[in-house]
Structure formats: C-alpha cells, structure tokens
Amino acid sequence: MSVKLGGYMFEHACYDHEVDVLYMRNGPSSDATDFGESPEGHHLRFAPDGTLLGITLVNPRWLLEQDGKIVVTLPDGSRLETADLGPALAAA
Q1: Closest CA to 86 of 19, 10, 1
Q2: Where are the domains of the chain?
Q3: Lowest mean pLDDT among 10-19, 22-31, 49-58
Q4: DSSP single-letter state for residue 26
Q5: pLDDT in tens, 30-71
Q6: What is the pLDDT of residue 1?
Q7: Residues whose CB falls within 8 Å of the CB of residue 30, separated by 6 or more in sequence, listed in order
Q8: What is the biggest distance separating any 2 CA atoms in the chain, rounded to whole angstroms?
Q9: Which of 3, 71, 72, 88 has minimal Cβ neighbours within 10 Å of its Cβ?
Q10: What is the DSSP letter of 17?
C-alpha cells in the first residue's frame, strides 16, 4: 500500500495497530544511511544524498483523533501535513 504525506508518496506502508505506529518507506530499508527525528517525535530515514526515504509516524491514529491532522517537520524546516491516513490505518 502506498501513502501520501505532504508532497511525498511512500511506496510501502505498514501500520501496527497494537502500538499505533505507521512505517512508511521508499525502496529497501537498508538504503537509509542517516537517521533523525522530527520535532514532533516522528522518525526520519535518509539516503546518502539526503533524500527522504522513510518516516515512522508515532501515534498517527491518536494524533488524527486529537488534532485532526499529522505534521512532520523536516530538518530543512519544511512541513509535511495530512489529515487523511484512513486507508493505511484501516489496512491493519
């Protein structure tokens, strides 16, 4: 299943409903060489050239219920935002 967050489309998404975590990535997980965390507490994975390869959203269902949206701030200050992860969260 693919998921769009802001201007990024992630080819692979897997939601773990027991811990409310959504894993999203493009390409193999092993391609990531740099890791970070957004100010909101989501985990970021980058390729050697700085391309964003994946995001792990922490508590996406809870955030959507509480705030009506999910925001991820990248290291360059740009913000990715969505109010709809329905298909990805329902797939579990």
Answers
A1: 1
A2: 3-90
A3: 22-31
A4: S
A5: 788 889 999 999 999 999 999 999 999 999 999 999 999 999
A6: 82
A7: none
A8: 35
A9: 71
A10: T
Six token digits for residue 63: 């955030």
Strands 70-73 and 8-10, how do they pair? unpaired
Query: What's 29's DSSP letter?
Result: G
Beta bridge partners of 45: 35, 54
Task: Tell me the three state secondary structure of residue 87.
Answer: helix
The residue whose two tokens read 């493009």 is 26
pTM over 0.70: yes
Q: In the predicted model, what is the mean pLDDT of residues 67-90?
A: 92
Neighbours of 65 (CB within 10 A): 9
Chain length of the chain: 92
Exposure on the CB side of residue 67, measured as CA atoms within 13 A: 13
For the chain, first and last CA: distance in Å? 11
Tokens, residue 80 = 């990715």
Q: What is the DSSP pairing of strand 34-37 with strand 52-58?
A: unpaired
